Amino acid sequence: MEANLETLRTLRTLQAEDRAATADERSRPARWGSWGAQGVWQIFDEDRHEHAAQREELKGRC
């Protein structure tokens, strides 16, 4: 889950700064896992309060 969020954060930064990714930043999507894999889907379960901060981040409210 954290790898997915890190990748999305990197993309937002690149878009905001209107620049190309560095070599390190280009390697981050390689760690991406599908949202249905290994419980990552739980972030979207509104009853899982432990993931509230991640849900808000995905909604762009952080």
Structural overview:
The model has no long low-confidence stretch (mean pLDDT 85). The chain has helices at 2-17, 23-27, 52-58. It is an all-alpha fold and 62 residues long.
Low-confidence stretches: none
Give the overall pLDDT as a whole number: 85
Q: Report the strand count.
A: 0
Termini separation: 17 Å
Helix content: 40-55%
Q: Main β-sheet: number of strands, strand sense, barrel status?
A: none
Brief digest:
The chain has 62 residues and is mostly helical.
Can you give keywords for this protein?
62 residues, flat
List the helices and strands and how they pair.
Layout: H1 2-17, H2 23-27, H3 52-58
